Automatic annotation (TrEMBL):
Protein name: Endonuclease/exonuclease/phosphatase family protein
Organism domain of life: Bacteria
Phylogenetic placement of the source organism: Bacteria, Pseudomonadati, Planctomycetota, Planctomycetia, Pirellulales
Gene3D superfamilies: Endonuclease/exonuclease/phosphatase
Entry keywords, A to Z: Endonuclease, Hydrolase, Nuclease
Length: 363
């Protein structure tokens, strides 16, 4: 059986809790209509959405599915997702600590993951196939210091830790969450290993966001490599990584380009080159088009056709990934980034990220 798996950072967030839900409620939100048109064009069987508000009842995610994906938009056929999983997120949850060191607590930068309200920038999975809810593993509470050889941020001149010991011992690794979500496809199971690491910018010389981004990605290397690792404890208290015979797909907006940008690139390069991971290198014709107005792209060394996000004056980057395990046969792959003369081009204005998809054969 062939299935199409996709990731899409849709940038559906607001300034206050509940704002996005109110925008979507009548099915007429212009941004969501464009997002739905992209989904209905690519038609993934399994879709990870980054940057959508979280509520315990998945209200916003269900509204997006019912009022947008499942209703024809811009002349396209609707697509139904009967199975939805909305993930809790560290974003906007006050840590009670002064994480940014300005002698004040309770700010967005003092949350376990940056956010002005709880659930901002979260994740949801939409699937045409059953989600094995009982066996979902989450690592929302996993401590950064528990990861062996964690990159603890330090002042580059004094080598003094950016986070004092009492803060470091409590810090969570995941800026949102790390998810292992099993999808049941006939007799086969595919584990979706989903995350959305913090951007490796918006910090200082200590590079605390760069360190965190690196280790949020490195977490998956440990999870894939170490099925018996006692230090990999999920939120239910169960230990260990993924079994060696498990089929999986690592996916999400990982906020890391292997060639360009300010991130610590070792982790993403190791993930892309891992022996159990395939990099289908999804491409698009639109990303590679020359843009005389954007001089930053001329300084980049990565293949522009692989780029998945347009960050304005900073240029284009490859930061969104769908990486199947070696046990899945890759049939096709792509990035929804139409060329300028394509009538579908206007749809991509809905987000600074592009949908990335991979089609695989499930044994």
């Amino acid at each position: 059986m062939k299935i199409r798996v996709a990731t899409f950072n849709v940038s559906l967030y607001g300034k206050t809790a509940g704002e996005v839900y109110e925008r979507l409620i009548d099915g007429r939100d212009p941004k969501a209509i464009k997002l739905a048109a992209i989904v209905q064009t690519v038609r993934p069987d399994v879709l990870l959405v980054n940057e959508i508000d979280y509520e315990p009842n998945a209200a916003t995610a269900r509204l997006l599915a019912e009022e947008y994906f499942s209703i024809a938009k811009s002349g396209r056929s609707p697509i139904e997702y009967p199975y939805i999983y909305a993930a809790a997120s560290n974003t906007g949850i006050d840590s009670g600590l002064d994480l940014n060191g300005n002698q004040t607590s309770g700010e967005a930068t003092d949350a376990w993951g940056y956010g002005v309200y709880p659930g901002q920038y979260s994740m949801a999975i939409f699937s045409r196939f059953p989600i094995d809810q009982k066996n979902i593993r989450t690592f929302q509470n996993y401590l950064w210091s528990e990861l062996p050889a964690a990159k603890r941020p330090r002042d580059p001149e004094t080598q003094k830790p950016y986070y004092e010991d009492r803060v470091w011992s409590k810090l969570r690794l995941s800026s949102k969450n790390h998810l292992d979500v099993p999808i049941q496809i006939g007799d086969a199971t595919i584990h979706l290993l989903a995350s959305h690491p913090t951007p490796p910018v918006f910090d200082g010389a200590e590079d605390h966001n760069g360190c965190r981004n690196h280790d949020e990605i490195r977490f998956w290397l440990d999870y894939i490599d170490n099925p018996d690792a006692a230090y990999l404890r999920d939120d239910a208290g169960n230990s260990g990584g993924l079994t060696r015979d498990a089929a999986f797909v690592v996916l999400g907006d990982l906020n890391a380009d292997p060639a360009d940008g300010d991130g610590k690139q070792d982790a993403i390069r190791r993930l892309l080159g891992h022996s159990r991971v395939q990099d289908p290198k999804p491409r698009s014709p639109g990303a590679a088009e020359p843009n005389a107005k954007n001089k930053a792209n001329a300084k980049h060394t990565g293949d522009p056709s692989l780029d998945t996000a347009d960050f304005g004056s900073s240029g284009h980057f490859r930061v969104d990934y769908v990486l199947p395990s070696e046990s899945l046969n890759v049939v096709d792959a792509g990035v929804f980034w139409p060329q300028r003369q394509d009538p579908q081009r206007e749809l991509i204005s809905a987000s600074d990220h592009r949908m990335v998809w991979v089609e695989v054969e499930v044994p």
